[in-house]
Amino acid sequence: MGICNVTPDSFSDGGRYFSKDDAFARVRELMEEGADFIDVGGESTRPGAPAVPAGDQITRVRDVIALAVDAGACVTIDTASPLVAGACLDAGACAVNDVSCLREPGLAGVCASNGAALVLMHSREPMSELRAFSSYPDDAYGDVVADVMAEWRVAAERAVSEGLPPDAILMDPGLGFAKNARQSAALLAATGRIAGELGVPVVVGASRKSFLTIADPSAGPMARLGASLAAALFAARAGAAVLRVHDVRATRQAIDLDRALTSVARSEKAGVR
User: Fold this and answer.
1) Catalytic residue among 179, 208, 224, 244
2) 11: pLDDT confidence band, cut at 50, 70 and 90?
3) Which of 60, 76, 154, 168 ranks highest by number of CB atoms within 10 Å?
4) Beta-bridge partner residues of 118
């Protein structure tokens, strides 16, 4: 899942794709690099980001989504707003990526009425109230993995109550959202457990996030490619269904080479030449 932020203030690429021409070019780039999904968003999800009115979000993203769909892409709209979701599904998006853990009533119903999937990400507070990335109390969770799964199940049940089929829901543990670096790392390490216990496809979005600085404390968002690739490779090996990334080509290279080498190693072990 390649990221296209049509925003002036996203944490790592804010402003780079804010004009429609730049956003169109970004969509083409992601598709050329092999993205299976294009995740388009018109509102920053960094901690403390101000809310963007639904109309402004729609103005930012609708033409970008239409272009991507016309080019053959499967598009997800990154929003918590039922109004934005409805407009973007009408424009051809196939799924909604909700980082609010279904904070807005009616969002799942919009997905249901449009036959769309819902990526339901765990979080606790609105973006405007979130603290800086990774500065979350250690005692905010008892067992972060168990607590996140339990809270996510409650939101998923609300989605089903709005008419969304259970098999249309994907789970994102929300790395960095209402979690500190240790909590995010614990959730990433538990990708296999989460996928196995919840029985739904798991989406992992670790790309460029601040918890990755546990491997390199001085690295800014654009200097976290190595850690982002390691996180993506770990998640893929553990059974993640979707990886949400900024660097599509590099991530695909890492995963495809790992799979090729694993296949060769298995053949060698079995005595096949």
Assistant:
1) 244
2) low
3) 76
4) 96, 169
